Write the structure tokens for this entry.
Amino acid sequence: MAPMSTSCPCGLPAPYARCCGPLHAGTAAAVTAEQLMRSRFCAFARRDAAYLLRTWHPAHRPAAIDFDPKLRWERLEILDTAAGSAFHDTGVVEFRAHYRDGGEAGEMRERSRFVRQDGAWVYLDAEG
């Protein structure tokens, strides 16, 4: 796990303890779909399966998450957002996630759909 004093893995300059940490701990909630996307990327980077499962829509949530021990999520780029503000019930976040798999660099690009469930943002699925 990343030290608490470094920048958050989600790509924002704040330390983890003041950025995604409160969301992961359940003491804060994502205000926007982009904030949830960033916190979910951070959860993948930190291997926080409980948070990922908690923020996944029940209709699409897997039973468990198995992390590949050779895969390291390194950097997130937000490419585009549509809706997903505090005033919306749906949102889309397009991103590029950079990783290393056994030392080899790679990237994943996706347009993720988010919805509000009981007032909280959750990941629904990927477009397309």
